[in-house]
Each structure stands twice: as structure tokens, then as C-alpha cells.
Write a structure and sequence with these properties.
The complex is a heterodimer of chains A (about 190) and B (about 450). Chain A is mainly α and about 190 residues long. In chain A, about 70% of the residues lie in helices and about 0% in strands. By secondary structure, chain B is an alpha/beta fold. In chain B, the strands form 4 sheets. In chain B, strands 1, 3, 5, 7, 9 and 10 form a 6-stranded mixed beta sheet that branches. In chain B, strands 16-15-14-17-18-19 form a 6-stranded mixed beta sheet, with helices on both faces. Chain B starts with 11 loop residues before the first strand and ends in a 7-residue tail after the last helix. Classes of the chains: A mainly alpha (about 190), B alpha/beta (about 450). Chains A and B meet through helix 4, helix 5, strand 1, helix 6 and helix 7 of A and helix 1, helix 2, strand 5 and strand 7 of B.
């Protein structure tokens, strides 16, 4: 067993998360990002329709794990639990309201985004203002583009309806493949 | 000091990327399968974020330059650690750049400066600094900076260490030592100490009748007019003195915790030696140094600022260690007979007591500065540590008393003025007639 600096065995909190051993060096800006994660997790929970106990436990555990260790699997667990809670909450063929969907989508994005930022900034690091401003600027652009695409999706749904249109379903499948392919190409692209 | 990596670093996916791709692939498929547009809408912000992030990802890291404002500090003094970051082409936009300076030695950054996260936009230059504080005399070293860069909105990361080298000298000169002008043996040609000999100088020695060879500008006209005989004003000549600092680091006790914290015997000795050397060199005297842990490499007595630099460089390297008996005797025998020998010692070994007594017997003026700190942190070696230390202190008291009988004063190091009374006493003693055995 590894001993701590005083020569004693580490306590349960220290064993659970080494980050607690450095709590005196925590920086306010990095804590703010963790707080944003917690708030986003709470919003996801609030936006879920009638969450089941298992989903609830997974989501809470995922959010807490994401706050303590954002560069690990905590954020992924929280995202999966949130999506599962949404799908099971509305049933396989449910039709949630547009406002509820948008609220949930926004909360889930906030959780994802805050976890991504928290993963880059250790809780003891000094986060300079320009990082936060740049990050928020890119978020604003992302949400703007996403809002346009959302309008397009709901517009197409209103015009054609996904249940009846097979060509639209095939087009959707193709779209998924193209988007994933584009992501893979952008990732593997070499230096210009 | 910095080297922009010629090759782009290896960008690796963060755990965010697989989870985002899972959402991007899973939710649209589920939306199509279940004919639910809401699932597609939920996936949209995350998908857009991933695509935009990867589209504007960086390939190269910005150039990082790191340097320190001042290369020489006093104990507890601060300097500025300056960062200079510059992104090159339009593509090099690193969103989060985590910087961790690799420091070694007696320097530290404040809590909020140990690891810094910043952003460097394309074609942008960014400059900022953090306070770098010296904690103790010695040396500090900046070995480089560890970089962790994130791009693609936190989807990709790269780790790199940029080498840099800057060394800091932390001088043990914060004590602000001053002492009286009195020295037992003023010698040499020029200086600021009044010697016992009459000659060119500023201090009045008296008025005496004119003799052939006296300079005309020395004639005291009021006295000459009154007595009808030429009289001249006599002065004491100004001379310098030679001070040899002997550093005893054979026994090291105490914990070196930095300025205003716990001190070891070496800390006390080095701080005292630095302050005394600076004081006497500033007054134009010649100062030499003999570190008894390296008796074969004494610093010969010289004057001037260069000598102070030389002495400080040697003091920064003091590590402690016991000399051999023969080497100790040889090193001490080389000291000039007219020098003022200041031994800086915690007086915890009988060998140094014998050596100091021998120096005094040979006619040299010796003064011992006690470098045992008032409060000392002892390493715990069992139940008998306290008792063993008490016995050691009794031995020390005996040694101090024995040195007193040999005419060697022992004074504790208390900074400014701590040697005044003893120096005055030694000067008076030196002025008295001596019985010399023939």
C-alpha cells in the first residue's frame, strides 16, 4: 500500500479520487467549469420525462464521475444514461414536444461541452480568460448552426414525415454515413 | 530558449471523441429506425460541434518561449517568468494550451501559476508572466516547459516537452550586515580602516613640530603662529585589512526550509559568510574564503565586486562534509598571520575547536561566529534523540568555554552589529603590548 506524505495510509476519499489531495490548490475558474457540468447534469435530469431508477442512478453517477475525472469515462456514461432516459421515458414511438426536445438537446450539449472543457483543464490549473471566451464563441457558432439544422429537420418532418417516406429514411442513413465519413476524414487529414 | 517543433506533434483522441461519435452515429440511426426526429435534433449540437471542431483543428503547436526577467535574486525575492506564445499559419489554432514549467532548485511559482491554460488563436502572439519566487539561497533552474495542447474543441490532444534552460543564482545576502570600523590589524596600502600608524589619512592623531620631509600642506598655521615654530597636523593612516572566512560544515544539523522558515547550520553559515564578505568588500577590504569541506580549494583574499561574485559562487555550492585532519591543518596554516580570521561554525565537533585554538596560538586574530540556529529541527532517531542532543550541547558549551580561555570569542550570528563588541575588544587587544616567547 502506498503511504501518503505523513507516512500514514491514505483515507477513503484520497483512495477514491487523488484530486481531493490537492484541494487547497483548486482554482476558481476550473471549479466554475465543474459547476457548469453539475448544473448541466441537473438540467438533463429535469428535462427527462419520468426517469427510471436505473437511469437516474447511472446519470447521477456519470455526472459525478465526469466532475471528478472529466478525462475518463464519466461523461460518456452520463451521455448514454441521458439518451437512454429520454428514449425510454417517451417510449419507442413517442412524440415529445418540440420545446421539451430542444430543452433536452441543449442540456445534453451543455453537459457534453462542459465535460469536454473540464477534460482539458485540471482543477489545479489556472484557466485564463481567453480560453473561456474562445470556447464560448465556438459554442455560440455551434448552437447557431445546430439551430438552423434543427429548423430544417422539423421542416422536413412537417412536409414529408419520417414514418411514411422510405426515400427520406434511406437519405437519412446515407447522411449518417457521410457525416461519420467526414468526421473520420477530418480526423485523419494530414498537415497541409 | 525555445524550439518550435519542426514536425507536427502526434495528436491523439481524447475520451470525448469516441463518446461524441457514438452519439453522432447512434442517435440518427435510432431516429431513422424509430421514425423520431427528436433524436436527430438531440444529436445535432454535438455532431455540429464535432464537425466544426475537426474542421478547424490545429496541426502544429505554437512556438513557446519561456524566460526569466532576472538571473540573480536575493533570498525570498521574486522575478518574472515570462511566457511568449506565437501561432504561425492560419491553421494553427490551439484552443487550450496547458503549460507547466519544469523547475528545479530553490524557486517556486505561486499556486495559480504552476499550470496555466491559455489559448493561442491563428497568427496571434500572446505574452504573459507569473511571479517566480526564490525560497532559499542556492540555485534555481528552469529546465523546460511541458505542453499539453487541445484542439478540435477538446477532441484531440498532444503532449510535448519544450526544452529551455535558464539558471538563477539566489544570493544569501538578505541579512544586511554592518559592523564597526574597528579591525585588529589594519594593513595594506589603502582602505577605510584607521590604522595605529601615523601617516596619510583623515583621522586626527595630533599636532607636532615640523620635521624635514613633512608636506607643506600639513602645516598647522594657527598653532605655528601662536608658538612661533612650524607645526604640522598628524593623522592616522587609512589602511585596509584582510578578512578570511573559514566555513565549518563538517556537522550539518537542522532542516533547510527556506527563508523565514527552519534553518540548518549550513544556511546560517552561508548567510553569515555572504553578509560579512559583502560588508568588508564594500569597505575596500580584502576577503578570502576557506570552505573546510573543500580545504584544497581556498579562495584567496582579494578586493572588489568580482571577488564578491567569486565568493558567492563558491557559497552557493557549499554542501557540507568533513575534511581530513591533515588537510585541515594545512589549509589553516596557509592563512596570513595578519588576517582577521572569522570562523563560521556550529561548534559541534572537537576537531574544529582544536583547529581554532591552534590558529589562536599561532598569533592570528580569530573570531568564531556561532552558526547553530536558535530553533532547530532534529531528525527523530528514537527515544534517545533528545538526550543525545542535550549531551552534544553540553560538549558544545565546554568547547565554547575552552575557546574563551584561549582568547577566542564566540558570538552568535544575529545579523547587523552582532560582531561589533567583539571587534572593538579584539582591536584593543591588538593594540596592547604582547609578550612574545623567544
Amino acid at each position: 500500500m502506498k503511504l501518503d506524505v505523513t507516512g500514514r495510509l491514505p483515507g477513503p476519499v484520497t483512495r477514491l479520487a487523488p484530486v481531493f489531495t490537492e484541494r487547497r490548490r483548486w482554482q476558481p475558474a476550473a471549479l466554475l467549469v465543474r459547476l457548469a457540468q453539475l448544473v448541466a447534469g441537473g438540467l438533463v435530469l429535469l428535462a427527462l420525462p419520468d426517469p427510471r431508477p436505473l437511469v437516474l442512478v447511472l446519470l447521477v453517477a456519470g455526472v459525478l464521475a465526469a466532475v471528478i475525472g472529466p478525462a475518463r469515462s464519466g461523461p460518456a456514461i452520463a451521455l448514454v444514461a441521458g439518451v437512454a432516459g429520454w428514449v425510454f421515458g417517451h417510449g419507442a414511438h413517442g412524440s415529445p414536444s418540440v420545446a421539451g426536445t430542444l430543452a433536452f438537446a441543449l442540456a445534453l450539449f451543455l453537459l457534453y461541452d462542459a465535460s469536454a472543457l473540464a477534460g482539458t483543464v485540471p482543477v489545479t490549473a489556472h484557466l485564463r480568460r481567453e480560453v473561456l471566451l474562445g470556447w464560448l464563441r465556438r459554442d455560440a457558432i455551434t448552437l447557431l448552426v445546430a439551430a438552423l439544422l434543427t429548423a430544417l429537420v422539423y421542416g422536413a418532418h412537417a412536409v414529408a414525415g419520417y414514418t411514411s417516406s422510405y426515400p427520406l429514411q434511406v437519405l437519412g442513413l446515407l447522411g449518417v454515413v457521410v457525416v461519420l465519413g467526414a468526421a473520420a476524414w477530418l480526423y485523419s487529414r494530414s498537415v497541409r | 530558449m525555445s524550439r518550435p517543433g519542426p514536425r507536427p506533434p502526434a495528436w491523439l483522441p481524447t475520451p470525448t471523441l469516441p463518446s461524441a461519435l457514438a452519439v453522432m452515429a447512434g442517435l440518427p440511426l435510432l431516429a431513422i429506425t424509430l421514425s423520431r426526429p427528436d433524436l436527430l435534433v438531440i444529436a445535432l449540437p454535438i455532431g455540429v460541434s464535432v464537425l466544426l471542431g475537426l474542421l478547424h483543428r490545429a496541426y502544429r503547436l505554437p512556438r513557446v518561449r519561456l524566460d526569466v526577467q532576472s538571473a540573480t535574486l536575493l533570498e525570498g525575492e521574486s522575478t518574472r517568468l515570462r511566457y511568449e506564445l506565437a501561432a504561425g499559419s492560419d491553421e494553427d489554432a490551439v484552443e487550450v494550451l496547458r503549460l507547466r514549467p519544469l523547475l528545479d532548485g530553490w524557486v517556486e511559482l505561486p499556486e495559480h501559476g504552476r499550470e496555466v491554460c491559455t489559448e493561442v488563436a491563428a497568427g496571434q502572439q500572446r505574452r504573459f508572466g507569473y511571479r517566480l519566487t526564490s525560497t532559499r539561497w542556492g540555485r534555481g533552474q528552469l529546465d523546460g516547459v511541458a505542453l499539453t495542447a487541445f484542439t478540435g474543441h477538446g477532441l484531440l490532444r498532444a503532449d510535448l516537452t519544450v526544452p529551455a534552460s535558464a539558471s538563477l543564482r539566489i544570493l544569501p545576502l538578505r541579512e544586511g550586515f554592518t559592523a564597526v570600523d574597528a579591525v585588529p590589524d589594519a594593513s595594506g596600502v589603502v582602505g577605510q580602516h584607521r590604522s595605529r600608524r601615523v601617516g596619510e589619512g583623515a583621522d586626527l592623531a595630533g599636532v607636532r613640530p615640523f620635521v624635514a620631509g613633512d608636506r607643506l600642506h600639513r602645516i598647522n598655521w594657527p598653532v605655528s603662529t601662536r608658538t612661533n615654530q612650524l607645526h604640522v597636523t598628524a593623522t592616522y593612516s587609512d589602511r585596509d585589512t584582510e578578512v578570511v572566512l573559514v566555513l565549518d560544515t563538517a556537522v550539518v544539523v537542522g532542516e533547510s526550509g527556506g527563508r523565514d522558515r527552519s534553518a540548518s547550520t549550513i544556511d546560517q553559515a552561508v548567510r553569515a559568510a555572504g553578509s560579512i564578505a559583502e560588508h568588508y568588500l564594500r569597505n575596500g577590504d580584502r576577503v578570502g574564503l576557506l570552505d573546510l569541506s573543500r580545504p584544497g580549494r581556498p579562495i584567496r583574499s582579494r578586493t572588489g565586486r568580482n571577488q564578491l561574485n567569486r565568493l558567492v559562487d563558491v557559497l552557493l555550492e557549499v554542501r557540507g562534509g568533513a575534511p581530513g585532519e591533515y588537510a585541515l591543518v594545512r589549509a589553516l596554516a596557509r592563512i596570513s598571520p595578519r588576517a582577521l580570521v572569522i570562523v563560521l561554525s556550529p561548534l559541534l565537533s572537537a576537531e574544529i575547536g582544536d583547529a581554532v585554538a591552534e590558529l589562536r596560538r599561532s598569533g592570528r586574530t580569530v573570531l568564531v561566529v556561532d552558526t547553530l540556529p536558535e530553533r532547530i529541527v532534529l531528525p527523530e532517531h528514537g527515544d534517545w534523540t533528545g538526550l543525545a542532543w542535550q549531551i552534544q550541547l553540553l560538549h558544545r558549551d565546554n568547547l565554547i568555554a575552552a575557546l574563551g580561555t584561549h582568547g577566542v570569542p564566540v558570538v552568535p550570528w544575529l545579523g547587523a552589529g552582532s560582531l561589533d563588541a567583539v571587534l572593538i575588544g579584539l582591536s584593543r587587544l591588538a593594540g596592547m603590548p604582547r609578550a612574545v616567547p623567544r
